[in-house]
Q: What sequence folds into this?
């Protein structure tokens, strides 16, 4: 439970980064959309995606590479640190999907595509995440690894769905 709790705190760092991108996307894309400035809208869209990929990659690399060091602050128990280090690999991968999800979501919200964002959220969390958790935790008994796999799968599915809506709408 401690590894999960600490891992979720690491994901909260990414949550702050992602919601910042989402807010910026809503404001910048929305302003251009309202002014019928398609050129500006596409420029902001490209910049948002580029900055999202770069920042998520840097943050993911820091989390993955610094996992042993970070979890070593909390315990000297080798099993705990090893479990935390492996969890950091999942957390780093989730960081990539989660940040891109926020970028696409913010851009879509900027053009008023709220229905698409809602559909992606319902399917990924209500279906994929919950279904994967039930299968992996209750049936397969994977423990914490099932939680990380379900989170990664749900975030990735949502990011891919939002990307497909993003390509159609913008």
A:
């Amino acid at each position: 439970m401690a590894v999960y709790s600490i891992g979720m705190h690491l994901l909260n760092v990414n949550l702050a980064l992602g919601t910042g991108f989402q807010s910026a996307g809503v404001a910048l894309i929305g302003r251009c959309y309202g002014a019928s400035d398609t050129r500006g809208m596409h420029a902001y869209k490209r910049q948002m995606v580029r900055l999202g990929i770069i920042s998520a990659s840097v943050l993911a690399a820091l989390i993955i590479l610094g996992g042993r060091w970070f979890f070593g602050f909390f315990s000297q128990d080798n099993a705990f640190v090893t479990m935390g280090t492996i969890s950091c690999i999942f957390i780093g991968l989730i960081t990539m999907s989660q940040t891109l999800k926020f970028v696409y979501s913010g851009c879509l919200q900027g053009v008023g595509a709220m229905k698409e964002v809602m559909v992606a959220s319902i399917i990924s969390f209500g279906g994929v995440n919950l279904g994967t958790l039930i299968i992996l935790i209750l049936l397969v008994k994977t423990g914490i690894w099932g939680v990380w796999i379900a989170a990664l799968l749900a975030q990735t599915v949502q990011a891919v769905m939002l990307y497909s809506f993003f390509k159609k709408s913008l």
Q: What stands out?
A: The radius of gyration is 17 Å. The first helix runs from residue 2 to 34. The CA atoms of residues 27 and 110 lie 7 Å apart.
